[in-house]
Design brief:
Helix 11 crosses helix 13. The chain has 427 residues and is α/β, with parallel strands linked by helices. It is globular, with a radius of gyration of 23 Å. The chain has 13 helices and 14 strands. Helix 6 links the parallel strand 4 and strand 5. The longest helix is centred in the last third of the chain and has 45 residues.
Amino acid sequence: MNYTRFLNQVSLARVPSPVRVLTEILQKGPPTMISMASGMPNVEKFPFKEATFTLRDGNSFSIDATTMQKALQYSATPGLPNLIDWLRKIQQSEHNPPTLNGQMDLVVTTGSQDGLCKAFEMLVSPNDNILMETPTYPGTLAIVKPLGCNIIDVETDKDGLNPDHLRHVLSRWSPNDAFKSREEVPDIPRILYLIPNGGNPTGTGVSTDRRKEIYEIAQKYNLLIIEDDPYYYLQFNKPRPPSFLSLDVDGRVLRSDSFSKILSSGLRLGFMTGPKPLVDRVKLHMQASIMHTSSLTQMLAIKLLDGWGLDGFKQHVDEVANFYLERRNLLLSYAEKHLTGLAEWNVPTGGMFLWIKLIGIEDTYKLIMEKAIEKEVLFVPGRDFLSDSSKKSSYVRAAYSLSTPEQMDEAMRRLSELIKDELKSKN
């Protein structure tokens, strides 16, 4: 594929930082190498020496003084080599990408949000048209909107992004134009963004048949798919449907993964997998910004994965998914108890959210931001998930990740009272 047509001028102008290149050479070099090139501080003057971490299962691991020195020092931009090895092993086991032994590469990011931000900032130019599922994650909207592009909404339903609507949206362009340069056809979309599993806010997942159909459309129109998949391991049905990365025979998928939902959101650990020419551009942006993800948090992940092994990791993520499945079922039971006849919803197939449509209420914004706060209950109004936040939405998002069963029950009761009061005020 010709990746140049996807990159903007800022990304094309980036060149490697010579200091960062030398850091990577030093990291991969033999212990006998003497470096007078580095501007690294002397670790002997860092106050931290060693640490022991106790896990919830009663096991523990230690970071000894020698390892701690590595964890506290600057490291290469792509990530610590041992963690990169682990992530490749996980991606091969879970997705078995067709491009694994060819042009695929990956980079450790400071949470998946950081990787997404750098991906959009390398791909999007002012006035570009980009395709984005709707409703969608507000964090992505916060990245994209300031870039001066035009967001073209692609509709979703209970089975995720609708390929028929995607095809309809693209029908104004010729597929032949999709293989021309930016200069020749500046307005044709080049990027499709979606959350394929446990959608935020909808909780939906894209069916296997739809994934294949969407990928075929991407091939026809030469689209780059940004697969934002932080809820991949929080799917409630087995076997998991194939990821777009696993379908990617062309090298047109840039996939974003996160450890935030399964290990720790505070560790700020994510990773981006995709075609090497694009991942390399993400690395160049990182060299000029954060330099690298925290070496200490990377080391914690390495120690944890070394202790678990691949089977232990899979057992852990299955336990996490079962935990959220139980909480989903609890919230559904309280929704049925209090909201039947007042609201509608689809059963989430993954993630942490229930997307609720309030019957007879055209827009939920003031109801949630004013009246719900007065009743001491919080939801997210639906318009926050729209590319045009001035549009009205009859939806609210409820999260079932943190609230106790008693709090879920009371929250649904309070929401039912809000709906009833709002409907009475209109009569």
